[in-house]
């Protein structure tokens, strides 16, 4: 008998398990929240590859629980499995954090360390996933059913709490702490690594208090062996022996009738699982496509604060805690009052519809978001804008085109890009500039699919031209990009926040650099001679790309801001409806699905259904991986495709549910009693296994 919490029937050992789970889930979700932006901004992968790798990692995390269950039930037991795989987990986090240090090797080393770290993390988190909750349930005596159920409520609350806090904190560590000259991914990954070390230490600290059940064999392996034996028997003997009522009955000569009957019941539920991966394909894009969408939105909430694009994922964990009691205490009873029969399968189908509606909302948001994006030039074309600093309006004629039919205003603060056709991969364009009554020939070389600014400025012999290559892709972390155009005869050093710009003289342009969004009314600008001035740049807004032109006026340096790429004008709050819809779908689909599965199967088969449920999540991630790499659609079209696919799958699932008959637990028990005298030792073994499997409620959250 282990130690109890004072005055209760709760084992003291569960405190260590709950704290361990909180730290582990903080570690996992905190790291995962950063992954997509890490791939895009640090490893410089494109959005499709980043999405594919993100979901490949997510899929692996939900394939490996089967391996963890096999190791725990057949070899090491739950306790040792959690210890050893947690060590693998910690090593993965450390390797991942080291891979995020810019000074450690080159890009290939960073990629190799990142991938190795993610593989180790996937094996660690997936391997312990089926063990920790069940190990917590093992700590209770069989008669303490209510306390065990309360433990699982606390357990899942700790999961949601860890997820919520981590998705708030780690993006702050990434974006607000600067290290190695940029976002501090090393620290943002290092903190989850430290939390995983704490999780391991806390779990080991309670080792003397744990109740450790002896190995009982792996029911999942036994089920697979029984199914395999039945299929082989049917293949080899069906032509020579009478037909049997069910194909599993071909296993009767080796396996008990009770086991065969239980497998039949489980298979009926597993068949219903076949359409379910499509829901997870949509749900898990919160950390990939939806995060990338957030980077192209306005994330400021007034002057008070702004949110990080990867912090929006915390809405799901927060809304879960809010929605579960609302649905249980208000919505479901109200629907029942309307004399609408609420069944688990109907709830799951409704959850699918809500997820599809969430992607419909995401489609509408995406259509608005892309209006501020400058599309890259198509093949055999370039983009060209004119920045006129020549002292008066200028007419620009490009030979062989009808670009710029109207004169370009002097000092126009919002130039626009025009598509410039090229005859080959590179072309010299013959440009005539008319300004202040004089013509200037300006011949420049262009390359296809690039963007350029043609800068017109006064020179000794009239108007002169300079062609500058532009960067038009919005910053992947949502912050603005800035460059300076120096019209002065001296070099300048300009400090914007913590970012230093070195700008050469005589109409030179500095490279684009990322600065934090905000109002910059007191920027330091120093001449090479040492004389310094204060500049007012105004608001540098999310997603914009600015060229700031520096001129001398009335004896001081003045900044004139032009917007090459418009700022994000769709507010991040417009993502709230899609998060609310997807979370409502999760409450109806995921929580209900787990409860339905457990209610429809014998106690000793719950681990089999848990494995099947986790595999639906894994295959959902595989679907996203295939679409992200293979479809090549515009983002809003991809969102619409996923919404349509889920609606189609929902129809198929609804038809399948019409042929499903709910199992009455009393009938199950009656069947067992009728067959209890016929099964001998097999039944005794099954009874032992039934007593060792905890019945768990999952109504407080579904983050596993």
Automatic annotation (TrEMBL):
GO terms for molecular function: oligopeptide transmembrane transporter activity; symporter activity. Residues 682-704 are annotated as: Disordered. One of its GO terms (biological process) is protein transport. It is found in: Membrane. It is a multi-pass membrane protein. SUPFAM superfamilies: MFS general substrate transporter. Keywords: Membrane, Peptide transport, Protein transport, Symport, Transmembrane, Transmembrane helix, Transport. It comes from the Eukaryota. It holds the Pfam family PTR2. InterPro entries: MFS_trans_sf (IPR036259), POT_fam (IPR000109), PTR2_symporter_CS (IPR018456), SLC15A2 (IPR043381). Residues 682-695 have a biased composition (Basic and acidic residues). One of its GO terms (cellular component) is membrane. This is Solute carrier family 15 member 2. The lineage of its organism: Eukaryota, Metazoa, Chordata, Craniata, Vertebrata.
């Amino acid at each position: 008998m282990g130690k109890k919490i004072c005055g209760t029937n709760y084992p003291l050992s569960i405190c260590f398990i709950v704290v361990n789970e909180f730290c582990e889930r903080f570690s996992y979700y905190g790291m995962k929240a950063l992954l997509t932006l890490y791939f895009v901004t640090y490893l410089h992968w494109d959005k499709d590859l980043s999405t594919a790798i993100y979901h490949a990692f997510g899929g692996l995390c939900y394939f490996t629980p089967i391996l963890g269950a096999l190791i725990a039930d057949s070899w090491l037991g739950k306790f040792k499995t959690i210890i050893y795989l947690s060590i693998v987990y910690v090593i993965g986090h450390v390797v991942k954090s080291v891979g995020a240090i810019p000074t450690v090797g080159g890009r290939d080393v960073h990629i190799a360390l990142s991938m190795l770290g993610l593989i180790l993390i996937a094996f660690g988190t997936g391997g312990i996933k089926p063990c920790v909750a069940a190990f917590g349930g093992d700590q209770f005596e069989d008669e303490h059913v209510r306390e065990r159920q309360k433990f699982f409520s606390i357990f899942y609350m700790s999961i949601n709490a860890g997820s919520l806090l981590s998705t708030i904190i780690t993006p702050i560590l990434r974006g607000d702490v600067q290290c190695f000259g940029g976002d501090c991914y090393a620290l943002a990954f290092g903190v989850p690594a430290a939390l995983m070390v704490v999780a391991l230490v806390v779990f080991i600290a309670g080792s003397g208090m744990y109740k450790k059940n002896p190995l009982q064999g792996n029911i999942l392996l036994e089920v697979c062996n029984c199914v395999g034996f039945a299929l082989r028997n049917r293949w080899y003997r069906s032509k020579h022996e009478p037909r049997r009522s069910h194909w599993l009955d071909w296993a009767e000569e080796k396996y008990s009738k009770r086991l065969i009957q239980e497998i039949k019941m489980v298979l009926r539920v597993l068949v219903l699982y076949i359409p379910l991966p499509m829901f997870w394909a949509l749900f898990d894009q919160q950390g990939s496509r939806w995060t990338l969408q957030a980077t192209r939105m306005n994330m400021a909430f007034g002057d008070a604060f702004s949110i990080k694009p990867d912090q929006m994922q915390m809405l799901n964990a927060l809304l879960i805690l809010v929605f579960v009691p609302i649905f249980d205490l208000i919505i479901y009873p109200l629907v029942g009052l309307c004399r609408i029969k609420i069944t688990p399968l109907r709830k799951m189908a409704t959850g699918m519809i809500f997820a599809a509606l969430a992607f419909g909302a995401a489609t509408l948001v995406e259509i608005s978001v892309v209006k501020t994006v400058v599309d890259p030039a198509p093949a055999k074309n370039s983009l060209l804008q004119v920045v006129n600093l020549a002292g008066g309006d200028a007419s620009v004629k490009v030979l062989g085109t009808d670009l710029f039919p109207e004169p370009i205003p002097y000092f126009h603060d919002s130039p626009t890009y025009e598509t410039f056709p090229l005859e080959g991969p590179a072309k010299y364009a013959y440009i005539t500039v008319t300004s202040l009554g004089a013509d200037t020939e300006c011949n420049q070389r262009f390359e296809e699919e690039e963007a350029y600014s043609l800068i017109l400025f006064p020179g000794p012999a009239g108007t002169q031209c300079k062609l500058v290559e532009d960067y038009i892709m919005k910053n992947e972390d949502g912050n603005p990009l800035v460059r300076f155009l120096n019209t002065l005869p001296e070099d300048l050093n300009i400090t914007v926040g913590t970012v230093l710009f070195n700008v050469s003289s005589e109409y030179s342009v500095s490279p684009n650099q990322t600065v934090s969004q905000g109002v910059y009314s007191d920027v330091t600008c120093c001449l090479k001679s040492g004389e310094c001035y204060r500049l007012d740049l105004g608001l540098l807004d999310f997603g914009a790309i600015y060229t700031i032109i520096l001129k001398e006026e009335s004896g001081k340096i003045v900044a004139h801001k032009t917007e090459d790429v418009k700022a994000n004008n769709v507010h991040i709050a417009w993502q709230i409806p899609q998060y609310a819809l997807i979370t409502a779908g999760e409450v109806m689909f995921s929580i209900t699905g787990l409860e339905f599965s457990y209610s429809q199967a014998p106690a000793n088969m719950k681990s089999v259904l848990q494995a099947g449920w986790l595999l639906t999540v894994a295959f959902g991630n595989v679907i996203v991986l295939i679409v992200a790499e293979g479809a090549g659609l515009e983002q809003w079209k991809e969102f619409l495709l996923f919404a349509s696919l889920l609606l189609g799958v929902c129809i198929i699932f609804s038809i399948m549910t019409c042929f499903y008959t709910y199992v009455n637990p009393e009938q199950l028990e009656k069947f067992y009693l009728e067959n209890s005298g016929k099964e001998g030792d097999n039944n005794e073994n099954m009874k032992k296994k039934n007593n060792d499997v905890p019945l768990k409620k999952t109504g407080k959250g579904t983050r596993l």
